[in-house]
Amino acid sequence: MAANWATFVAAEPDFAKTVEDRFGAFTHHVLATLRRDGSPRTTGLEVRFLDGELWLGMMPDSLKALDLRRDPRFALMANPGEGTAMGGGDVRIAGRAVEVDDPRTKRAYGEEVEPPEPFHLFRTELTEVVRTGVEDETYLVVQVWKPGEPVRTLQRT
């Protein structure tokens, strides 16, 4: 089961805001895709939250775009930032990326984001959102959301 960003926001608005703020703290993040041989590829990427969707824009024929065309599964990790503070925790999103070819959608995205032309545009379908952080300098807290399920919170000492 997968869901778009708007579904996540509707289901868990506080958690979604935390995740969006975490991604908003920095421009560049880390995207993991699968190479042709199945091994992982990690690359830098900018993301956008617009119109109820999490968008991934890429340069034409970039390896990450070609990976996603072949196998749409991805994992995205928010930039942890400088030092060891990781304000807002470690945030990861997993799912599938669906390439958007609709000229109207791409034009609207381009007007908002102003990416270099031409570009690949992928809309995401989320399968999991995870936030890991430290609470009270004592507990490791892991929040996990999957479509159709409430957030599970795990706490470790």
Number of helices: 4
Q: Estimate the helix proportion, in percent.
A: 10-25%
Q: Low-confidence spans: pLDDT under 50, at least 5 residues?
A: none
H/E element order: HHEEEEHEEHEEE
Q: How does the major sheet shape up?
A: 9 strands, antiparallel
Number of strands: 9
Please compute the radius of gyration using only Cα atoms. Answer: 16 Å
Mean pLDDT: 93
Write down the oligomeric state.
single chain
The first-to-last residue Cα distance is 32 Å
Global structural class: alpha+beta
Shape: globular
Structure description:
With 157 residues, the protein is an alpha+beta fold. Helices cover 24% and strands 41% of the residues.
